[in-house]
Amino acid sequence: MTVSYHDIVRASGLLEGIVAKTPLVKSLTLSNICQADVYLKLENQQYTASFKERGAYVKLASLTPEEREKGVIAVSAGNHAQGVAYNAKRLGIPATIVMPKNTPYTKVHHTRSHGAEVVLTGNVFAESLEAAGRIQQERGLTFVHPFDDPHIIAGQGTVGLEILDENKDIDTVVVPIGGGGLASGVVTAIKSRRPDIEVIGVETKLYPSMYEGIHGKEFTGGGVTIAEGIAVKQPGGLTLEICKEKLDDVVLVEESSIERSIQMMIEIEKSVVEGAGAAPLAALLDHPDRFKGKKVCLIISGGNIDTRLLAQVLMRGMAREGRLVRVRIEIPDVPGALSTISALIGEEDANIIEVYHQRHFYDVPAKQTDVDMVLEVRDTQHGQQVIDRLIKEGFGGRLLGNTSLD
């Protein structure tokens, strides 16, 4: 069993007016940073903020009337769940989505809002998958696989067709890989019409499943990743077969680069992306020589990132760039001392974000206290300027660890 170019063309016709033909835009700033012509295929602008609704609709539309009446079941903690739930509602198909118990509430809420029955069970994905199998057998439901299904692959492949139709000057496409459904479809579509275009997959180093599968290595994926959408320990049999035959390369990226890419997409492109969606940009950051001077299309696969995590990523990014610094200041334990240093910091146009006032647990004299502060500054030079002013005014001050001023 395989997926042909004609399957993807048929899927494209089926999706006409159903899913958005997302923008393909050039980023001048990212092009300058990466020393390549960088284009962004913004699948995070789909209704469910992910490419997943393409394949989900194609799969659901293929069901027989009997299968539609009985309903479908899927296992997912994220984008696949929403893609199936949303399109099942559009087609009048009952949907059951099994999600791990620790799935963030927002994802559960969005999935339920599309009319699906959500079953929260299992501490890990494997336990949820096992539970879904039991429910499927009991109710006679059709299982909608997240990636290893010809209809799913064909639907995801329509992203590749749109890239070809929108910009014929592309010479490289970078696609995130989890189970391989998107990569399989995209590479099939592109290589069928333009075999000269390189299609390169990208995975996080914590979950290099497709890279290991293509190279005949043992699957070793594991750990906590910011790119949970591509945290798949083993690719599908069909997707591995297609990617092994057609992909030009698979590159691996660091977690820190994915995190930085999320921040860059927010600050430069004003576009919210999740970890998996940021992985293609991370590939350019981690492998600059591989893409230098090329016309590269990055498939930004989704934008469903938890808001708390996004806030954390942005604050950590500011710390990496020296715009947030931690300082320890020695002050006499007398009334007004804290007010004095606060005024000095304000005079230097720095902003106090957090204050930790400690008398008892630091190794300091009884009549002295240490104050730890997190300051927002313009850059590293400005941060040093604040420290110098404090020292000049007679307060002992120094930078603490994990700041770019160390």
TrEMBL record:
The protein's enzyme class: lyase
Enzyme Commission number(s) of this protein: 4.3.1.19
Source domain of life: Bacteria
Domain ACT: 326-406
GO molecular function, one term: threonine deaminase activity
Catalytic activity: L-serine = pyruvate + NH4(+)
Keyword match Transferase: no
Cofactors: pyridoxal 5'-phosphate
Keyword set, alphabetical order: Lyase, Pyridoxal phosphate
Classification via PANTHER family: L-THREONINE DEHYDRATASE CATABOLIC TDCB, THREONINE DEHYDRATASE, MITOCHONDRIAL-RELATED
Similarity comment text for this entry: Belongs to the serine/threonine dehydratase family.
Protein name, as recorded: Threonine dehydratase
Species for this entry: Thalassospira tepidiphila
